[in-house]
Amino acid sequence: MVDVLTGTFTVKAGHAQMLKGGVIMDVVTVEQALIAEEAGAVAVMALERVPADIRADGGVARMSDPTMVCAIIDAVSIPVMAKCRIGHFVEAQVLESLGVDYVDESEVLTPADETHHVWKHDFKVPFVCGCRNLGEALRRIAEGAAMIRTKGEAGTGDIVEAVNHLRTVEGGIRRLQYLDKNQLMAEAKELGAPLDLVIEVHESGSLPVVNFCAGGIATPADAALVMQLGAQGVFVGSGIFKSEDPAPRARAIVEATTHYQDPDIVARVSEGLGEPMKGQAVKSMPKEELLATRGW
Amino acid sequence: MSKIGILAVQGDFAEHCQAFRCLGVEPIEVRLPEHLEHVQGLVIPGGESTTIIKLMDLYGLTEAIKERARSGMSVWGTCAGMIVVSHRIMEDDLHPLDLIDLDVRRNAFGRQVDSFEADLAVPVLGQAPFHAVFIRAPAIERLGAGVELLTQLEDDTPVAACQDGVLVTAFHPELTGDTRFHGYFLKLAGIGQPVTGSDSSPEHSTSVL
Prior knowledge:
The structure holds two protein chains of two kinds. Chain A is built from 13 helices and nine strands. By secondary structure, chain A is α/β, with parallel strands linked by helices. Chain A is globular. An eight-stranded parallel beta sheet of chain A has the order 8-7-6-5-4-3-2-9, sandwiched between helices. Chain A starts with a strand and ends in a 27-residue tail after the last helix. By secondary structure, chain B is α/β, with parallel strands linked by helices. Chain B has one domain: 3-Layer(aba) Sandwich (Rossmann fold). Helices cover 22% and strands 26% of the residues of chain B. Chain B has five helices and twelve strands. In chain B, strand 1, helix 1 and strand 2 (28-30) form a beta-alpha-beta unit. Chain B is globular, with a radius of gyration of 16 Å. The two termini of chain B are 28 Å apart. The chains are: A alpha/beta, B alpha/beta. The interface between A and B is large, with 40 and 39 residues. Strand 1 (4-6) of chain A pairs antiparallel with strand 7 of chain B, so a sheet runs across the interface.
């Protein structure tokens, strides 16, 4: 009898490796999921409201109704992700039981725990988590996240925070590479991150899992920008289905993510897409409305 | 000059590039038809087969790869790549490249929670078992008469095969650090010799990271 292993970190993190160079799109209906799949999305994020609407509506944002998650799972052949609240391990258990391919423990929903995240090692389903800096990324990986995304500021259509967070994580990695071994313990203390992961990043010069960029991507040029800054793929939330004409914009963002190093192609796919989502400048927002600061 | 190319429109092409570098071969990334010019062996990596097929169609790669394969370019598809090169995808409207006479079923083992790792006997690679990683993997449903079966699961599901210059694996050798399949494909494509040994026969080209 051959040993067959499921739910290992290799198959969890390996799934994220298969998503690289791709676009993961937020969808709220089966119809949108089919548009995303047709446009070439590598996965869809099934949720009840896109972040722009969560902002506008206020109130408590929770895990989606299982009925809609299952309807989307049945409708598409690409992987389906869904969000649970930070620290809400029972929502995560429910999503795992529904058969979602990835759980996003997300700051876009209202946190269920203001101190702790989900202990993700206990799940067979892999998790993606948001981060704003290297320490936050390594804490999530230590808890079992098999994929990381920089947070940006969801639902704004403003790329500025996505760029900030990506540069901060990438800069943090480069800084670790320059340190000598005598400095690593102090750096681990400073980052609030486990020493073994700090040593791993110091030696490899990269995160031990895939890192995508999220939060504020609204145009093909936005997608190519974050790819050139080092993201390995992108999440697009409100940017597609809050725009004037979602299907061609979705396709254009997919093409720009593949051909991010080719300005001629990014220029061509950017033509005649109609109005992007209107958006909201992050600098004009009160601090208490920011979602990215959720997470500990 | 003959080259190994890795289709780089989406997926884990970087992991394949790294595996070939371990064998002393510097591959080139293929995103547009003109990148195929010197390619004598093309790898279609793991990724999302729907996305890869759509991007290949959009940028003229579908016809270009078929034409080059007809004139002797070897092709290796891993996981999604196996779907892309197959004759037919069960219960799906997408048109694969039809480079090898076999039909595949996507997500044949279930969803992500059913993804698995297992050791397989692969006689063409020598005695040591090959540690195979299956991620939302496809399976071969029908194997054509001229196709050589390379390995199967305990329940006899075929998961690697070869026909002329076309190799398919339902799993991901690029994720394991065992480069024997990469060495096997180099030989199939008639490219270089792994620098990690004087004898490049499959039995001796094991390399462990």
